[in-house]
Amino acid sequence: MAPTTRSRAKKLSSARRSYRKRVRSSTCRKKGPAACRGTKGCKYTKGKKRTFCRKSGNTRRRRR
User: Fold this and answer.
1) d(CA 39, CA 15)
2) Cα–Cα distance, 61 to 41 (Å, whole number)
């Protein structure tokens, strides 16, 4: 992997911040199975360790 320069570190921290903001403000968070399935744009997912509610679509960061 490329060495972390100041500009790269800034870009990474910005990406991390925007991801956190997006995830925390999601309407799907902290919902139970029934509420999750009833909410448009959310789906109840099984992971390796736990089941949880998440958005059904992916969000991509735009590159300039």
Assistant:
1) 27
2) 19
- 44-53 in b/e form (b: 16+ CB < 10 A) is beeeeeeebb
Q: For residues 29 and 44, what is the distance between their CA atoms, to the nearest angstrom?
A: 10
Q: Which of 3-17, 25-39, 40-54 has the lowest mean pLDDT?
A: 3-17
Q: What is the pTM of this model?
A: 0.70
Q: Please give, one letter per residue, the 3-state secondary structure of the chain.
A: CCCCCHHHHHHHHHHHHHHHHHHHCCCCCCCCHHHHHHCCCEEEEECCCCEEEEECCCCCCCCC
Contact 31/53 with Cβ under 8 angstroms? yes
pLDDT at position 4: 86
